[in-house]
Amino acid sequence: MCARYAPILIFAFNRPERLSCLLSSLQSCPEFATSPVRIFIDGPRSATDVPLVDQTYDVARSAPVPDLQVVRNDTNTGLKASVMRGVTAGLDLQDRAIVLEDDLVVSPQALTYFNAALEKYKDEDRVWSVSGYMYDVPALASRREAFFVPFSHPWGWATWRDPWQRFVTGTRDLSMISSKSFQTYFDALGVRDFTSILELDTMGLVNSWYLNWYFEMFLRGGITLAPPVSLIQNDGLNAGTHASVLNPYRFLQRRGEIASVMPDLPDEVVLDFRALDALRAAKDVKLQKAISQMGRIKRLGKRTLSQVVGR
């Protein structure tokens, strides 16, 4: 398959209005009309989901692009399996891909940024992914140049075939999770509690493709390009696989700014530790970390309760 722009892989389920908003925002990107688009729709979990999945399928089929393919599952496989299978299929067609979930809204500059970065860093083995999302970090708001960080982010990202293949064929030694040194660096010196979420995944309390992807990337010394101001907004924090109507984030944090200009791409592929300092100090980062930690306590509490009741 030969195309001017990277394929856009979209993952949806039972939220037709969210998918419609994402597709509407993509239409503001000049590259969208001539990009290959693949939309993967997971199957219903129960009879209640069927009408919404049907509506989501109808929205997907109406996407205004000539190179469109909609793949619908008959049964529910969950986000992890859907992403793993869909990204692998997309990268079998072309050596790069842009990955979006249905609860995102993109900036008009998002596809320009993704495609430019995918081309510029295609031969840089150290660069594993390109993130379109950035926390609300006032210290970075006036910055024009993107930068490299040692972790990935799942809210709108892109990658190439080679690092994804390294991920899907990798064998990961999870015994190192208990190492304090591992935890310090895996958590990006305190930016997020990645280790605790990975532990929940190993316990079966979450089912995350993302943490396993980041884990493999981390073990191999991979890094991610990130914009100084987000080109992505997540409008689905009150509903979805890893969200809740009681999620306090949308009440406690102002709606982050979405980029109005295309970030400059750095020529030198090196980590930006000053940017990491700014991230660690940002209110948004601290709030997301605190909410994640509360979610961990809730999941562990539910597990303990079920074990007690089951005795």
Characterize the structure shown.
There is one protein chain. The chain has 311 residues and is an alpha/beta fold. It is 40% helix and 14% strand. It is built from 11 helices and 10 strands. Strands 3-2-1-4-8-6-9-7 form an 8-stranded mixed β-sheet, with helices on both faces. A two-stranded antiparallel ribbon has the order 5-10. Strand 2, helix 2 and strand 3 form a beta-alpha-beta unit. The longest helix is centred in the C-terminal third of the chain and has 27 residues. The protein is globular. About 3% of the residues have low confidence.
Provide the spatial order of strands within the biggest beta sheet: 3-2-1-4-8-6-9-7
Report the helical percentage: 25-40%
Structural class: alpha/beta
Largest sheet: 8 strands, mixed
Q: Compute the CA-based radius of gyration.
A: 19 Å
* Average predicted confidence as pLDDT: 90
Q: How far apart are the termini?
A: 56 Å
Unreliable runs: 238-246
Q: How large a portion of the residues is in β-strands, by DSSP E?
A: 5-15%
SSE succession: EHEHEHEEHEEEHHHHEEHHH
Question: What overall geometry do the principal axes of the alpha carbons give?
Answer: globular
Q: What is the count of DSSP helices, taking H or I runs of 4+ residues?
A: 11
Tally the beta strands: 10
What is the topological layout?
Layout: E1 8-12, H1 16-26, E2 37-41, H2 50-61, E3 68-72, H3 79-93, E4 96-101, E5 104-106, H4 110-120, E6 127-131, E7 147-149, E8 157-160, H5 161-168, H6 180-186, H7 194-202, H8 209-219, E9 223-226, E10 232-234, H9 249-252, H10 273-281, H11 283-309
Parallel strand pairs: 1-2, 1-4, 2-3, 6-9
Antiparallel strand pairs: 4-8, 5-10, 6-8, 7-9
